[in-house]
Amino acid sequence: MRRIAAMTPTVAASGIILLAWAVISYPQLVNPFFVPTPTAVFGSLLDVVGSAAGVRDVLNTTLRWLAGFFIGAGIGVGLGVALGLSRRTFDALEAILDFARSIPPVALLPLFLLVFGIGHSSKVAVAAWTAALPTVIGAGYAVRHARETRLLLGRALRASRLQLYTMFVLPEALPEILSTLRVSLSLALIAAVAAEMLLGGDTGLGKRIFESAIIYDTAQLYAGIVLVGGLGFVANKIVGQLDRRFVHWAGR
Amino acid sequence: MNAKAQVKHDASEGSAARILLKDVRKAFPNAGRDAESADEILVLDGINVDVDQGEVVAVVGPNGCGKTTLLNLIAGLLEADAGDVTLDGKRSESVSVAYVFQNFRETLLPWRTAEENVALPLELAGARRVTARATAREFLRRHAPEVSPRAFPYTLSGGQQQLVAIARAIVSQAPVVLLDEPFNQLDSQYRCQVRARFLDLWASKAQTTILVTHDVEDAILCSQRLLVLSRRPARVLREIRVPLTWPRTDSAVHDELFSEVERTVLQLLRGERS
To answer: For chain A, what are the domain ranges?
Structure first.
């Protein structure tokens, strides 16, 4: 009951937007080519998820995105924690990492195309790269932010270096690492979809959205956008739940 | 590596260590930009302290006189500029110290429940996780029944958090226990209760304990010996052996001898104000 009550504002707000969309699109107040009706878009969406090709696109995008995310974030967290523990290495590499992070991943697409070709691997690689960089920096800072007083407690009790890392520094870094991962997850999706649009190949939601525009099927174009948005949304919610479960104590 | 193993071994026996400070001097760089002020602030100068194994000593002194610095030196978290700090004749870094910091709240690990926090020193000393937590739970049940062992620190009141911090120090087998204003979050009635409980505990534990407090009553009641420090740079003004039986109960505050000691201490401290 409480859950339903909590959802009410969300449902109401979504309803208003849907209503506004309907009011504009059904009487064709705006050119239906740019704003197709909700029925057209949802019909197209059902067509996509109801067809083998559509399912394959959703699965491929999801796989490329998640594979990229796990590879990139995995390397990113490992590297970031290692760098965070060694202040000197971190300081030495910080500018380089910041520079690498500042390169829009899209600018690297041609390079990835040359190196990895037009198959899955180039898209996964782009997503991994995009997920890895903010994670390295985020995890590095998270580890460095361990509170001095807690470390002093450990030092007074003569904890070994390993104990200080595993029992004090890493748990303390966890909330910040998780919020970094949440950002990386969204970025990896952006990268995967962009790669599908621009790197060739013939599957994926990015590809489908791009081609819908070329063949002037705007209903399908919007359907593709809704699907991609839905993927990101669900993933974000899942991570949010993990957050609440594992780092409920953050900031307390 | 060897030294480390030795520490773990010592810790498991619950031994006490003799704390010895010889001619200790400690100054901090002066953060003020005033050109006329000195480059450094001298906090402790020529401090000599000798605390016997298992003895409970209270340190009182004016605000900001360097009581906490003294504890940090003993804990090995600071290095003395001159003089020696030894625990059982060893450099202090090699002996495990259970320290209740003044800002104890920051030292409760928020990802650990009350019982897991109390178990921390036992786990650090090499106890198996399950055993350590069972010991901690039992300790809390007996000595701090108002704290629910499975609660996370952020759900506890300030007073309960302080109890967890004190329990964590006392449950440890560390040969040295340092308490920096350990009762400051407790209201006066609760404070007496908690004090009484820990008086009991201290009497049964062998750990060498130093209690820093600005509360003269706490200091006298909870110690066998008092060190009265001067204002900064701190010297030991006077050492007073508390002439009351030990172990002690809370009712000792009504003793004539208690009032006598209290008068002496307050007089000494008054002289250090101005």
So the answer is: 64-250
